Amino acid sequence: MGRPSRNIFSITCFSLIGWAAAALIPGDTDISPQNTINVDVCVIGGGAAGTYAAIKSKDLNKTVAVVEQQSRLGGHTKTYIDPVSKKPVELGVAEYEDIPVVREWFARFQIPLYSYNFTIPGVSTKYVDFQTGQTATPKQGDLLAAWDAFQRQVAKYPYLDQSLDSVPFPVPADLLLPFGNN
Predict the structure, then answer these.
(1) Taking the complete model, does pTM exceed 0.70, yes or no?
(2) What's the CA gap between 38 and 15, in Å, rounded?
(3) Nearest-CA neighbor of 96 among 79, 80, 81, 118?
(4) For 30-41, b where at least 16 C-beta lie within 10 A, e where not — what string?
(5) Extended beta strands in the chain, E state
(6) What angle do CA 106, 91, 82 make, to 5 degrees?
């Protein structure tokens, strides 16, 4: 059987989300037709991915609603102005991959991109075992071997560099395994 219809999935998913949200809202909830928005796409979250999804949907001539809890788009991105130095500090997303889709996206809005060296004098990398919380000291050979194994695995699926929309259905079983099990 092929990939399930995205339209049916989206309608079902967002209907369930809307129903659940309405059930959780205290007081009177009027979900009558005059208080209902009918759109092709409902994006939950106006962060980087949600904003991208909304604009790409508009590019495809879809009607879109973005549901965002903040009064601005951007998700975790935010500029904090230090009250003492008055200098801006960027919080949230610190980097984007240097790939065509990212460069094209920022160019579309005439936003300049800059290369940045993340090496900070006096700051070092600390490796931690997420299962134990203990500091781990991997051998350099182990890191290179792990990276090599990762690259070999990813090379089997060239579409992973393009878009998650191109992942086949059903998803190949080895893509669902934890990193240590493949």
Answers:
(1) no
(2) 11
(3) 118
(4) eeeeeeeeeeeb
(5) 41-44, 64-67, 78-81, 88-91
(6) 120
- CB-CB neighbours of 46 under 10 Å: 19
Left, alpha or beta for 23 (phi > 0: left; psi -120 to 50: alpha)?
A: alpha
Nearest-CA neighbor of 51 among 28, 29, 68? 68
Phi, psi (5° rounding) for residue 68? Answer: -135, 135
pLDDT digits (tens, 9 = 90+) for 76-114: 777 778 888 988 877 766 677 788 888 898 899 998 888
The alpha carbon of 85 is separated from its chain's Cα centroid by a whole number of angstroms, namely: 32
Question: For 53-78, b where at least 16 C-beta lie within 10 A, e where not — what string?
Answer: bbbebeeeeeebebebeeeeebbeee
- Amino acid (1-letter code) at residue 63: T
DSSP state of 5: P
